[in-house]
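To: structure desk
From: M.T.
Subject: fold request, one chain
Message: Could you run this one when you get a chance? Sequence is below, nothing fancy, just the single chain.
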Amino acid sequence: MAKDFIPVDAAELTRTLIRCPSVTPEEGGALVALEALLSGAGFDCARVDRNGTSNLYARWGAKGHAKTFGFNGHTDVVPVGDAAAWSVDPFGAELREGMIWGRGATDMKSGVAAFAAAAVDFVQASPPEGAVVLAITGDEEGDATDGTVALLDWMTAQGEQMSLCIVGEPTCPATLGDMMKIGRRGSMTAHFVVKGVQGHSAYPHRAKNPLPAMARLMDRLASHTLDEGTDHFDASTLAVVTIDTGNAASNVIPAQCRGTVNIRFNDLHSGASLQAWLRDEADRVAGEYDVSVEMSVKISGESFLTPPGPLSALVAKAVEAETGLSPVMSTTGGTSDARFVKSHCPVVEFGLVGNFMHQVDERVPVAEVHALKAIYGRMLRDYFA
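Reply: Done. Structure tokens follow.
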């Protein structure tokens, strides 16, 4: 143990990070603060910035070691929204009522602070035979094209490798320790434009109304049962999120109509298979109503699963030791950067309760930040034991 070893206070580090106004894509000083902490503890640090997005890679120990424990997280946050609606300064990191208040308190500056503090303490208190890696991005809340993806691209080019990875996103629905994520559903959004012929509403036979066609298409999609779920995934879902013509006139049949659906899908599907199904449905409706239907699709991520095994057992053991709870293995929720990490190494997500994330007056209990650091520290000790 280093003679001058002083444990890192994860709660104070959380407050330091919250004071950095790192609204995507601004770095705001958060990665600068983390790099100073980590480099001071002997981590080799590299900024992996790409296309205006700031990212930080930090490694303690030998490059390419067969036992390399990785953490992944992000320091960027969503916008504040109406600042007047907050009861505190969104970037003031105020401490009151046993909680730290501010944007990013829950999602996920506390998680980053907890695993950074745990990693620093661990390598200084009991230097392991192996390596510890922190891959921290500033582009998770945005398009996510130049964040964790850039870090992983850089790691491949540099010969850097994680043996496993913990993503520190909030995962617990009610109590710290009640859930881990061993996978995620895929996510895709499809945009449709039905094009007809504009005309007077008193003479509908002279027009081609795109609205009935759009209504039919949206009904067909929303009424279809994609599946009944699988062993580790809930049933896939499709939600109609908008139908819009932009038509303010009651006596005009519009020339076109737009509609959008969002699909969250399990491991019975791929983005490509669902895109083909959507195209078939659009073509069928286009033929029935003698209109054209344009479609564009954005696939945010494919479904993935880290099968229950050594990594989930490592997480469960540490969580139970620190909280007394046995975490449920889940694949629920939206997307996270684990969808990128899964192609690099086995990955599991575990973090705080997410009740306040993205909300006005976002906040996190101080005690939970300390508890999360303890869980991450135990994971490190158990892995290298």
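Reply (cont.): The mean pLDDT is 97. Let me know if you need anything else for the meeting.
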